Automatic annotation (TrEMBL):
Pathway: Quinol/quinone metabolism; menaquinone biosynthesis; menaquinol from 1,4-dihydroxy-2-naphthoate: step 2/2
Family statement drawn from the similarity comment of this UniProt entry: Belongs to the class I-like SAM-binding methyltransferase superfamily. MenG/UbiE family.
Gene: menG
EC number: 2.1.1.163
Organism in which the protein naturally occurs: Streptomyces triticirhizae
Reaction(s) catalysed (UniProt annotation): a 2-demethylmenaquinol + S-adenosyl-L-methionine = a menaquinol + S-adenosyl-L-homocysteine + H(+)
Known function: Methyltransferase required for the conversion of demethylmenaquinol (DMKH2) to menaquinol (MKH2).
Pfam families for the chain: Ubie_methyltran
SUPFAM superfamilies: S-adenosyl-L-methionine-dependent methyltransferases (SSF53335)
Keyword Lyase listed: no
Organism superkingdom: Bacteria
HAMAP family for the chain: MenG_UbiE_methyltr
GO biological process, one term: menaquinone biosynthetic process
Protein name: Demethylmenaquinone methyltransferase
Chain sites annotated for binding S-adenosyl-L-methionine: T62, D80, D102, A103, S119
Amino acid sequence: MTRASLEKQPKDVAAMFDAVAARYDLTNDILAMGQNRRWRKAVVRAVDPRPGECVLDLAAGTGTSSEPFAAAGAFTVPCDFSQGMLAAGKRRTPWLPFTAGDATRLPFADDSFDAVTVSFGLRNVADPDLALREMLRVTRPGGRLVVCEFSHPTWAPFRTVYTEYLMRALPAVASRVSSSPDAYVYLAESIRAWPDQPALARRVREAGWERPAWRDLTGGVVALHRGFKPGGE
């Protein structure tokens, strides 16, 4: 497999995630030192899923992020463009309605969901701005967006240490535990190249979402961005 580049050709990125699917959740637990579980809980609180609502979970991978929404009573659709991830998820939780889809061309009708969320996937999309507009299209008026993504630590000394971890330690650790270590070199590069919190908030607004805001998690290693679709009551 050719390692995906920062040009983010969809076929290359999908193939990369197909290759890491088998041990993806385990590798993430190790690389994030357990922080990813706290981040997932923060996403669930921000989405605030309610019984009877419809939630679209984009870049859902194996569906780990989708399960809490379903457990809260929301009809939850895990969507991903990696067939390998979807297959791994379907084996683990066959009751979830896993759906193959490209975030820039979502296979859903307008105004279908009460909430749309994407965790650690927006930066892997070839055109994140188009994806944000597609998310807006499939969200009902007044509905909500939650984006959880790696960001830029707010304390400069920690930011330096974090960058060193990304570019040196992360690929080294991944080489021991991942089914495709080269994928984590790309992931480290994509995190470093991703816009900071104010820049992403501007892009959320420019895509048409109202009241964009963010909250830093783990000192800004991750940021939780929110927005609302115009309209509704």
